[in-house]
Amino acid sequence: MTFSDTQQQGAAGGAPARLGHRQITTVMSGLVLGMFLGALDQTVVSSALRTIADDLHGLTAQAWVTTAYLVTATIATPLYGKLSDLHGRRPVYLAAIALFTAGSLLCGCATSIYELAVFRAVQGLGGGGLMSLAMTIVADITTPRERGRYQGYFMAVFGGASIVGPLVGGAFADRTSLLGIDGWRWIFLINMPLAAAAAVAIVRVLRFPHRRVRHRLDHAGALALAVGLVPLLIVAEQGRTWGWVSPRALLLYAIGVVGLSVFVVVERRAGDAALLPPRLFRIRAFRLGVGLHFVVGIGMFGAMTTLPLYLQLVRGMSPMAAGLATLPTVFANLAVTLLVGRLISRTGRFKVHLVAGTGSFTAAMLVFATLRVDSPLWQAALGMALMGAGLGASMQTLTTLAQSEVPRTDMGAATASVNFFRSNGGTVGTAAFLSVLFSTAAGRIADRLAEARHDPAYRRLLARPDNAHALTGVLRPGGGVGLEDSAFLHTLDRGAALPFLQGYVAAMRVVFLTGAAVALVAFLIAAWRVPNLTLSDE
To answer: Domain Major facilitator superfamily (MFS) profile spans what residues (predicted)?
Structure first.
């Protein structure tokens, strides 16, 4: 019996037929290429973001580049589940790849940090479907116990992208130009051939007979969700500039609360067409799964955005060297992901792995909070290994938890909801952590500069022509500092730069301690609230 025959029988019977390992891996060979495309883009950009922001003169606004992608991906994710029900998995997946590719091309042509953020938003419209649809398809064709094993493969894909991404991103960012184009622009342009390969693979292996589901798209829900989320995320990014209780901030808080309230009302009335069906939240395991995805997403994205800045700003590493330095995270994540996936498949138990993972992630944040300007690299590597192991053990088990008690008829909506809450957490974490970092850094640097200037030797260092030239436009009247561009740190004497580096480290300590508190909340929920379920093999 062929794979297509098996699927036809499953479709005729109203439920997916159970496939063999070879058939599942055939389908996954196409899915992982699409997922690799999205995962690679995130890791490539993160390692080169400082170079991009410096070139476009927007270091303190760099959060927009990540936040814009996450906002649109978050809002688009639930829509992909409904669209694929209406039009089939394959055409919708191909549409997601096409949108992602168009956004990548536009990003490669950006001329300002805000223009780049807009184009990243276009990318996010496509990227929102790459992960969600892949996980939905796997949930369709596997049993709850099997999902841990195959989702482990997906996590391995992310691990591979995490290895390749920082290296590729660093290599391009280190090049002034390549074929007459700025080196960092190739970070986005390289998506063109990768997207073509992914599209060809999807067309060849993703041949599901489509059974049309008759329901309408929840346009009102999507609009209300956008009205609720976008203002709150703008405040998270701009609050440090406007003031957290300024009139503009208060207005956006109010709009966000109203939007989210309207979204809840709309979803209750939408029934089966709802983007996030309220009936799913009556399932305890689902509530815990999506809630923990949100909390862990805050810490994960916040840490993954801040750590490269420590390596590049404080340690003075190039983007490529910083990418190589993060390999302990990648290797630990890959090893633990594959191991945990097999253990879940064998035993059907996952709580122990979830608790251990969130505990390891909390420990990693505490290690990062102890970093100093002169800390040995092994100390940072220890934190990275703990973070990689923690995420490897927790992320796939959180997805398994959320899906464990959901009926197959709701699997698409449930999987989209999982990705929605993780993306929301990532958006909040990225915007809030970078906002805290740069709002805190300016004051900490100014304090350390004021202390250092009491030392005549340091004043002589600042007076040297090369140092004075490097600090042109950085030191503000009244003792303030401008942090829009960090390029001055490349040319500043190490002794003269020390107060700046100490200020950045002090601000990062606040960020990592905040991350540790968030991770601790996830650990406590996992340990005391998550039921010790045994997954079904049917």
So the answer is: 27-534
